[in-house]
Write a structure and sequence with these properties.
By secondary structure, the chain is an alpha/beta fold. The protein contains ten helices and ten strands. The structure holds adenosine-5'-diphosphate (ADP) and magnesium ion. One of its GO terms (biological process) is L-amino acid transport.
Length: 251
């Protein structure tokens, strides 16, 4: 059964808090073929959700759909952030109400310094964290503020991409494979930062091939397989369930 909750009021079941980000019955297409279907899940405010699944399962498609990117095309369903209908918005509007997508390739702007990359994010209101607050969280970026962003190491570029999302008035951070290609000690550093960001009340959805690392960080997990959700539960449940791990995550 898939009864549509009243998202405009925040759907409030007796035993659960109202969801902050709700994806309901979403279907997304690239061209002619649908890539994800029947996608329904909730994320509570301040929670970290790991969105997992094998290569090609539809994780990036799901994140891009939530961020309202031009492609894929969302043809069905609803997406709500804090009682606001994201499914009616452009990517710019979604960003202005607090959705921040950090794509897999990080998209640092060439020709601009670290600081200019951050300042550019602060041009459009509503502005989020100040440079001072960002440099406090990312001392490595403070040291390299005058360096061209694209010349940073992979880990530093990931930090810059996250900092740039915070420079907008961020409510939900959508991370697409943030640990990809990074040494374990750098992953440790980024993970520590993500925990601090959580303490500041920001909600995070993390997509990661490194499922164990993501599950150690996350409160809850959703697993996708060939475009549909096959599991929705706590991160601990996934870590304890060998069958689930080997069937869908190959860990
Ligand atoms: N731009 C695109 N055009 C057509 N098909 C795409 C496009 N991007 C992804 N796909 C297809 O959609 C499916 C899901 O891809 P994706 O969401 O990138 O998976 P994941 O991030 O889980 O690895 C794959 O079969 C992929 O080939
Ligand atoms: Mg992907």
């Amino acid at each position: 059964m898939n009864v549509k909750p009243d998202f405009s009021k925040g759907h409030n079941h007796a035993e659960t808090a109202p969801a902050f980000l709700s994806v309901w019955n979403m279907e997304s297409y690239y061209g002619e073929s649908y890539i994800v279907q029947n996608i329904t899940f909730n994320v509570h405010e301040g929670e970290i959700l790991a969105l997992l699944g094998r290569n090609g399962a539809g994780k990036t498609t799901t994140l891009r759909s939530i961020a309202r990117m031009d492609s894929p095309q969302v043809t069905k369903g609803e997406i709500w952030l804090d009682h606001q209908p994201l499914h009616t918005m452009s990517s710019h509007q979604a960003a202005s109400v607090g959705i921040g997508l950090v794509p897999e390739d990080r998209c640092i702007i060439p020709g601009l310094t670290v600081e200019e990359n951050l300042q550019l994010a602060q041009i459009a209101p509503p502005v989020g964290w100040s440079l001072e607050r960002l440099y406090d969280l990312f001392p490595r970026l403070a040291e390299r503020r005058k360096q061209e962003g694209v010349t940073l190491s992979g880990g530093e570029q990931q930090m810059l991409a996250v900092a740039r999302a915070l420079a907008r008035d961020l409510k939900v951070l959508l991370l697409d494979e943030p640990y990809e290609g990074l040494a374990p000690v750098i992953v440790d550093e980024i993970e520590k930062t993500l925990r601090i960001i959580k303490e500041q009340g920001i909600t995070t959805v993390i997509v990661e091939q490194n499922a164990v690392r993501a599950l150690e960080l996350a409160d809850r997990a959703v697993i996708l397989d060939t475009g549909s959700i096959v599991f929705d539960g706590t991160a601990a449940e996934v870590l304890e369930n060998e069958e689930l791990r080997s069937e869908y995550l190959a860990i």
